[in-house]
Design brief:
Elements lengths: L1 E7 L5 H16 L6 E5 L5 E4 L10 H6 L3 E4 L7 E3 L2 E8 L10 H18 L5 E3 L21 E4 L2 E2 L2 E7 L2 E9 L16 H14 L3 H5 L5 H16 L1 E5 L4 H15 L2 H4 L3
Parallel strand pairs: 1-2, 1-12, 3-4
Antiparallel strand pairs: 2-6, 3-5, 6-11, 7-8, 8-9, 10-11
């Protein structure tokens, strides 16, 4: 059994959520924290961009009108609107057996645990080999295109994940939409015209799912969190110790909010 820390953090703004993930990564890099599974949520709703995604993809006026936040991740991928979801982050040293090897090797191990978690919620799911966007066009929406080893239900993408590998260690975080209208993200992104926005929403509904849309009933955050913890224990041989952020991690997260994640020099850098 491998000893890991388990964190449940309260719903928070996007800048703080991303700052906490990076703060934990730095702490693990110093050998000051155990490998960590963190489960969390967002308030208010927040659009997150991949590290290299153009800020021009964001419709800032529509975003502000809805009271939504925007943040840039340190992981790659495309835009996600974080709301009504369970978010997980897995953070540990690069030499940890669960995270060792290539991006795809570690992604595959974690995907098996995520598959187990949603199966425990009663869903008939599978791990999907990725395929290119059939339109051949650039697409700002994460959930429209499955990547290698991502979890799908009835052919629709269910969990969107992204990973960063740094000298401090490995961070993978991802999003399990529980309830609600997935097409809300299209209201926060820029399109050439309203017809293009409507087309994107239609494609998204055809290619992505929530737990509720797949199961036909609402799914609670607490239930999804418990299933995730049990699945990581069973599939990956982890022994979890419930913990809290250290004072150093908290202070560093606050610093990262001020200097990076809530600052246009980071958010609008691309």
């Amino acid at each position: 059994m491998s000893n890991w820390r388990l964190l449940f953090t309260p719903p928070a703004r996007g800048a703080w959520n991303m700052a906490v993930d990076e703060s934990i990564l730095e702490s693990i890099g110093r050998g000051a924290s155990l490998p960590t599974l963190r489960l969390y949520a967002w308030t208010p709703a927040c659009l997150s961009l991949g590290v290299a995604q153009p800020f021009a993809d964001v419709d800032s006026a529509r975003l502000r009108a809805r009271g939504w936040d925007v943040v840039r991740r340190i992981t790659g991928g495309r835009a996600i609107l974080h709301t009504d979801e369970l978010t997980y982050s897995v953070i540990g040293p690069a030499e940890n057996p669960i995270l060792a090897g290539s991006v795809l090797e570690s992604y595959s191990r974690l995907a098996k645990a995520l598959l187990h978690a949603v199966q425990e919620l009663g869903m008939s799911v599978e791990m999907k080999e990725g395929k290119a966007d059939e339109s051949g066009k650039s697409n700002p929406v994460c959930f429209e295109v499955p990547s290698t080893y991502e979890i799908t239900v009835d052919g629709k993408k269910l969990i969107g994940s992204a990973q960063a590998r740094r000298k401090d260690g490995v961070l993978q975080h991802g999003s399990l939409p529980l309830v609600g209208d997935l097409t809300r993200i299209c209201q926060a992104l820029s399109f050439a015209d309203e017809s293009a926005r409507e087309d994107a929403a239609t494609r998204l509904l055809a290619r992505a799912a929530t737990v509720e849309s797949a199961l036909g009933r609402a799914a609670a955050w607490d239930d999804a969190a418990r299933s995730t913890v049990r699945a990581f224990e069973a599939e990956l041989g982890i022994h979890f110790e419930r913990g809290e952020l250290s004072k150093v991690e908290m202070a560093r997260a606050d610093e990262l909010v001020r200097e990076k994640y809530a600052h246009p020099s980071w958010t609008e850098r691309v």
